[in-house]
């Protein structure tokens, strides 16, 4: 018997650690595997209503998948350093197996679990699974981690990619009776009065397939619709995308009103589809693109999507080698940046009431759907940091609270790119004009009017000229929609001066 510890890899297919633990990997004599998920209070401290809801939906889909395979999901609550040794003992497990996670918090947690298992002489084993290439695998010729994406991409695309991991057989999974006995044993240990160092119960119970509610975990049901979850939904979404949209990906992906992106980010965040499986599917699409049935540039369109997988891994290796970037600038300025941080302006940005239609549409989509189109993410991030002159951390924290697909590495990389503080970031002097961005990428204002009902019925040109209208014109056109809270031209000049001062330069030059 082996215990497989789930974290951000909520799937049975293309799961490297699970395949090894169940005997589906290189050693068929291993297994069966007992699948376990632990609600860790230290991780929940960094969670949000939206992400807890999305996590529970993903776990429900995973549990149902196991039930179809004649097994189930063992669910526990508490510190993994305490829970996992107890479960291993209750299962008489030969080892505990998991897939590596690369954030600083995850690495600290895993180090504690390793020590706890060593203390009770339980073997443990960690696998590379979350990304195609280990964060240490692609380095410069000098041996340093890459800080420029284009150079990283060249090596990433040339490296051989592993095939999807095999799926466990039913015989390779623990039966429900064994799981139930283990859950009873752990609950019995809790009832005996064992406590953690802080004096509280070390676990709050273990059960087979019984998932808590958000309220049980101290969270509320979110107002946003978090979307579908699970491997089946992920595969359906990937298949639909690769069937048609991917062949126009580069040309269409920046237009938020069009169904031109994969919408796979949440599935990747929770590991509901394996990256090897997804990459293999893009290779099949590439082969199709090279046939006579597709436009001449179709292979380049597929490669552009593959670059998004590489971006994900680039930011993962940045975080792995620089865990401090979660709260600190990757790129430090000589004099430091004097952020303006006006509370009322930041609050208006969060509400989607800045008077800049494309910005407000994005912020309202975030609130309604726990998602935002990627081009719009760049626009709203630029607006916060360059128009409102607000510290990127305000935006990162807001996204972390409201995005179902929040990923520490990707979100941090994106925010620091927009703020010109990150690796391979947008130069400080390139500042998005929110009105130009709206006119270019939502010319008919379809996206804007979907999320900003106050502007419905107005001509698109009038919406894109909102900043130029007089107060009377605005009041007549859309009295419930606010006037711009800042003047973009003035704030652009202020942003340039702010960054020049941070660089130790004369802002008047």
Summarize the structure.
This is Deoxyribodipyrimidine photo-lyase. With 509 residues, the chain is an alpha/beta fold.
Low-pLDDT residue intervals, each spanning 5 or more residues: 191-203
CATH class of the largest domain: Mainly Alpha
Counted by DSSP, the helix tally is 22
Biggest beta sheet attributes: 6 strands, mixed
Distance between the termini: 70 Å
Instruction: Briefly note the CATH topology name of the largest domain.
Output: DNA Cyclobutane Dipyrimidine Photolyase, subunit A, domain 3
* Record field, number of beta strands: 6
Assign the structural class, choosing from mainly alpha, mainly beta, alpha/beta, alpha+beta, or little secondary structure: alpha/beta
Q: What's the structural domain tally?
A: 3
Kindly state the percentage of residues in helix: 40-55%
Under the CATH scheme, the architecture of the largest domain is Orthogonal Bundle
Mean pLDDT: 94
Strand order of the largest sheet: 5-4-1-2-3-6
What order do the helices and strands follow? EHEHHEHEHEHHEHHHHHHHHHHHHHHH
**How big a fraction of the residues is strand?**
5-15%
**Rg:** 25 Å
CATH homology-level superfamily of the largest domain: DNA Cyclobutane Dipyrimidine Photolyase, subunit A, domain 3
Name the shape in a single word.
globular
């Amino acid at each position: 018997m082996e215990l497989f510890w789930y974290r951000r890899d909520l799937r049975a297919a293309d799961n490297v650690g699970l395949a090894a633990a169940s005997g589906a990997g290189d050693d068929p004599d291993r297994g069966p595997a007992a699948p376990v998920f632990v609600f860790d209070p230290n991780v929940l401290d960094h969670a949000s209503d939206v992400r807890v809801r999305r996590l529970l939906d993903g776990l429900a889909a995973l549990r149902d998948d196991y039930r179809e395979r004649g097994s189930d999901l063992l669910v526990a609550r508490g510190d993994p350093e305490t829970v996992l040794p107890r479960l291993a003992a209750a299962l008489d497990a030969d080892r505990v197996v998991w897939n590596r996670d690369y954030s600083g918090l995850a690495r600290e947690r895993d180090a504690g679990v390793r020590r706890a298992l060593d203390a009770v002489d339980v073997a443990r084993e960690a696998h590379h699974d979350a990304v195609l290439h280990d964060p240490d695998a692609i380095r410069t010729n000098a041996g340093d981690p890459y800080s420029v994406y284009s150079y990283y991409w060249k090596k990433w695309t040339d490296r051989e990619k592993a095939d999807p991991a095999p799926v466990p057989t039913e015989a390779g999974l623990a039966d429900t009776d064994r799981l139930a006995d283990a859950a009873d044993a752990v609950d019995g240990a809790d009832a005996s009065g064992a406590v953690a160092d802080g004096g509280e119960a070390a676990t709050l119970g273990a059960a087979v397939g019984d998932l808590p509610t958000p309220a049980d975990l101290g969270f509320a049901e979110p107002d946003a619709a978090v979307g579908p979850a699970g491997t089946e939904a992920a595969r359906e979404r990937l298949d639909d995308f690769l069937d048609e949209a991917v062949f126009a990906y580069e040309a269409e992906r920046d237009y938020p009103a069009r169904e031109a992106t994969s919408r796979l980010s949440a599935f990747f965040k929770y590991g509901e589809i394996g990256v090897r499986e997804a990459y293999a599917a893009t290779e099949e699409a590439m082969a199709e693109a090279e046939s006579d049935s597709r436009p001449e540039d179709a292979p380049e369109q597929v490669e552009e999507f593959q670059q998004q997988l590489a971006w994900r891994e680039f930011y993962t290796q940045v975080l792995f080698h620089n865990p401090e970037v979660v709260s600190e600038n990757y790129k430090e300025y000589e004099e430091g940046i004097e952020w303006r941080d006006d509370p009322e302006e930041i609050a208006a940005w969060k509400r989607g009431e800045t008077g800049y239609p494309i910005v407000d549409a994005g912020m309202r989509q975030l609130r309604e759907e726990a998602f935002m189109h990627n081009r719009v993410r760049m626009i709203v991030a630029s607006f916060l940091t360059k128009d409102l002159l607000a510290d990127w951390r305000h935006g990162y924290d807001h996204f972390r609270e409201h995005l179902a697909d929040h990923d520490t590495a990707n979100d941090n990389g994106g925010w620091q790119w927009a703020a010109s503080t990150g690796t391979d970031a947008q130069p400080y002097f390139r500042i998005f004009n929110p009105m130009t961005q709206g006119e270019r990428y939502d010319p008919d204002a379809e996206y804007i009017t979907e999320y900003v009902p106050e502007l419905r019925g107005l001509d698109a040109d009038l919406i894109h000229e909102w900043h130029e209208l007089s107060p009377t014109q605005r009041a007549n056109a859309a009295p419930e929609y606010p006037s711009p809270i800042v003047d973009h031209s003035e704030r652009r000049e202020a942003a340039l001066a702010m960054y020049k001062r941070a660089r130790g330069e004369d802002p008047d030059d």
